[in-house]
């Protein structure tokens, strides 16, 4: 029986995917050849007026028809930006496909095993949230790494400014010397400056890619100095000092709230772990919860109270700084 499913999958993949890949490859080949002909002036007069597109390729999916569909939804650009912030080389279409697969497979498995539609939907939603949880985890870790490296980048810019370099040259030095994500973000800002974009617009784009308070402080300090004048090296030196003090204060708050955060995790995960353990010990007793109407109501009540308690504890231990 598994061999039959494998053969069916291979057949469907061959019929559907191979033509799509071939069409996409043919279109890309024609586009590259037309661009080369336009650049070398070897094309015919009918194609000489072709406009060469030098904008960034921000395709939301590698499949042409799916990319065209995703461009009509407001959610797709948000997912694309989220993936860029997390530095994950995925497209929005791939993320949606993985999420749908993560929902369908466990939902069908749980429904086939236990015969409960509610349990299948719950398991599917829980597993479908895993890709987004991983993306937000990678995004937050990248933000933290950027915050840690920003003061050193500002110190490097201060040294370059005091040596007589311009602000743009100092940003280029940071792009060359600092590691990612600081170097990559400053490199993108430096390239936008070279392409003719205004400094304010380039800094706004970097803030959009990295929506952090420390970077907002830095960009505001640079723009104020540009409009009012003054010693930019001294301004950036003070800004780096302020960012270091904020970072130190955040670490102290994180240490003092460690017990509360651990309590929140324990209280949120304990019902799930205890219910799973009791099911393996006595399945008949636990199955009453999803076989009877009162049990289903109790499950939903427990889920809602657990989520509410986790949100309350999170708001208590998280301080906006």
How many strands in all? 0
Rg on CA atoms, Å: 27 Å
Average pLDDT = 78
Uncertain segments: 1-26, 41-57
Would you mind describing this structure in some detail?
The chain is mainly α. It has three domains: 1-53; 143-250, Receptor-associated Protein (Up-down Bundle); 257-321. The protein is built from 14 helices and no strands. It has helices spanning 2-40, 64-70, 75-86, 92-114, 117-162, 167-177, 182-194, 199-209, 213-228, 232-256, 258-281, 283-286, 288-291, 293-317. α3 (75-86) crosses α5, α7 runs antiparallel to α8 and α11 runs antiparallel to α14 (293-317). The protein starts with a helix and ends with a helix. The model is unreliable at 1-26 and 41-57 (pLDDT under 50).
Describe this structure in a few short sentences.
The chain is mostly helical and 321 residues long.
Tag the structure with descriptive keywords.
disordered N terminus; single chain; 3 domains; mainly alpha; Receptor-associated Protein; 321 residues; 81% helix
Reconstruct the topology from this structure:
Layout: H1 2-40, H2 64-70, H3 75-86, H4 92-114, H5 117-162, H6 167-177, H7 182-194, H8 199-209, H9 213-228, H10 232-256, H11 258-281, H12 283-286, H13 288-291, H14 293-317
């Amino acid at each position: 029986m598994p061999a039959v499913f494998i053969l069916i999958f291979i057949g469907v993949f061959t019929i559907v995917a191979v033509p799509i890949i071939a069409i996409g490859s043919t279109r890309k080949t024609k586009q590259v050849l037309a661009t080369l002909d336009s650049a070398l002036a070897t094309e015919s007069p009918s194609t000489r007026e072709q406009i060469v597109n030098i904008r960034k390729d921000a395709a939301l999916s590698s499949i042409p028809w799916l990319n065209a569909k995703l461009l009509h939804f407001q959610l797709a650009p948000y997912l694309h930006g989220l993936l860029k912030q997390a530095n994950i080389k995925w497209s929005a279409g791939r993320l949606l496909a993985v999420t749908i697969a993560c929902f369908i497979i466990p939902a069908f498995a749980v429904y086939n095993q236990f015969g409960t539609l509610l349990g299948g939907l719950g398991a599917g939603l829980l597993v479908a949230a895993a890709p987004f949880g991983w993306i937000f985890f990678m995004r937050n870790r990248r933000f933290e790494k950027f915050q840690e490296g920003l003061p050193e980048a500002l110190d490097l810019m201060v040294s370059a400014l005091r040596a007589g370099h311009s602000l743009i040259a100092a940003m280029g030095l940071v792009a060359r010397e600092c590691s990612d994500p600081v170097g990559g973000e400053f490199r993108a800002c430096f390239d936008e400056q070279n392409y003719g974009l205004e400094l304010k617009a380039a800094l706004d784009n970097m803030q959009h890619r990295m929506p952090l308070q420390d970077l907002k402080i830095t960009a505001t300090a640079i723009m104020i100095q540009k409009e009012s004048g003054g010693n930019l090296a001294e301004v950036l030196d003070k800004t780096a000092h302020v960012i270091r003090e904020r970072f130190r204060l955040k670490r102290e708050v994180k240490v003092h709230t460690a017990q509360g955060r651990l309590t929140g995790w324990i209280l949120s995960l304990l019902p799930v772990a205890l219910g799973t353990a009791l099911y393996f010990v006595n399945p008949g007793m636990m199955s009453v919860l999803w076989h009877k109407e009162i049990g289903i109501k109790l499950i939903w009540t427990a889920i809602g109270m657990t989520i509410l308690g986790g949100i309350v504890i999170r708001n208590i231990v998280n301080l906006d700084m």
